[in-house]
Every structure is written in C-alpha cells, then in structure tokens.
Amino acid sequence: MTTIIRLVLAMGFFGAIVFAHQPDVEIATAKMIGASQVAPVFFDPGAKKLSAEEKSELQAFFTSIRESKKIKSVRVLAWADREYPAKDEKVSPKQIALAKDRGDAIKSYLQKDLKIQTVDTHNMTERPSKLSEFFKTNDYEVKSSAEATGAAPTPDKTGVFEEMGRSTTALVLVVLE
After folding, report:
1. What is the Cα–Cα distance from 29 to 151, expressed in whole angstroms?
2. Residue 75 to residue 35: CA distance in whole angstroms
3. pLDDT tops 50 at residue 103
4. Of 23, 34, 96, 172, which has the fewest Cβ atoms less than 10 A away?
5. C-beta neighbour count of 48 within 10 angstroms
6. Once rounded to an integer, what is the mean pLDDT over residues 3-18?
7. Half-sphere exposure of residue 166, counting CA atoms within 13 Å on the CB side?
8. What average pLDDT does this structure show over 155-173?
9. What is the dihedral angle through the alpha carbons of 126, 45, 75, 56, rounded to the nearest 10 degrees?
10. What is the pLDDT of residue 25?
C-alpha cells in the first residue's frame, strides 16, 4: 500500500513539474494574433447562452482593461461540445451551430452590454476552408495560430487527462490600441 501511495505522489510531483514549465497556450495564441489580453469563457454542455457568472467575469475583465488601456478590437474563438477537428474530420451541423451560437452570444453581450464596437467571432468547430487557406484570410490566420500554439487541440492531442481540451469553452482575445 505504501508503494502505491509513493507512486501516486511521485506521479503528481512529476506532473506538477511538467505542467509548471508548459507555455501558456492562451497567451501564446493571443500574441500570435496581435492581442495582449485573453480570458476563457466556460459553457455547460449544450448551453448556448452566457451564464450570469460568465457575464460578471467578462464585465470585470473588461473593466480592469479599460482602467488603463483602450480596446481596439476583440476576437472570440468559440468551441462546441467537442474539440477542434483534425484535418478531413467531419463535424455534425449541430456542433457547428452550437459553436456559432456561443460566439454570437458573447459577441452580442460585448457589443450591447459592454459597448465594445469591433468583435469578430471564429467558429472553432470548423476548420478553415481551402479557399480561406489559399487567401490566408483572417479566419485562417486565427485558427492556424490557435492550432500551432496548442490552444486548439484536436481530439487526439488533448493530453493524458484532457488538460488541453477546449470543448465547451471560448477564448476572448483583446487587441489594444
């Protein structure tokens, strides 16, 4: 029994060392697309609307930013109840719609309630189209950056304990003037 406890403690210590040295993928993604602030938003599975708690956290986040800086634009990366799809992976229309609704809910709240003018949304349940990849569109650049930093892991790259998973979340990235 003592051996098992020591093994579990050792694994926990090793895990703490490994995770302590991992780069913050959210900040790395923000920097790659020119943003300097980032906040995660969490949804219950299947939920399309922001909870009162998430609205409160977003309001506090933007209030603290506005105390010293001016907001130029915001980008919202919204996931459904699944991870970013691997190349050539099919995604159900229901999941695509869920991510779109989540992005729209955040955009609506930011524009109507927090009076942020420029808010772009990116549906992280869909990969960029071949056309957007060819023309290197904004959507392609954002999704490629999120994938490159690990902020948009595919289902097979979420980590042993799903610690890198993004399903049921959104990232709000703020570009300052």
Report:
1. 7
2. 9
3. yes
4. 23
5. 15
6. 41
7. 29
8. 71
9. 170
10. 85
| Range 69-88 average pLDDT | 94
Classify 157 as helix, strand or coil.
helix
| Its pTM surpasses 0.85 | no
Burial 89-126, CB ≥16 within 10 A → b, else e? eebeeebeebbbbbbbbbbebbeeebebeebbbbbbbb
Percent of the chain with pLDDT over 90: 68
Instruction: With CA atoms as reference, report the closest residue to 29 among 125, 147, 138.
Output: 147
| Run of H or E including 123 | strand 119-123
CA atoms within a 13 Å half-sphere pointing along the CA-CB vector of 167 = 14
CB atoms within 10 A of CB 129: 12
Pairing of strands 169-176, 71-78: antiparallel
CB 124 within 8 A of CB 166: yes
Q: Structure tokens of 125?
A: 């349940």
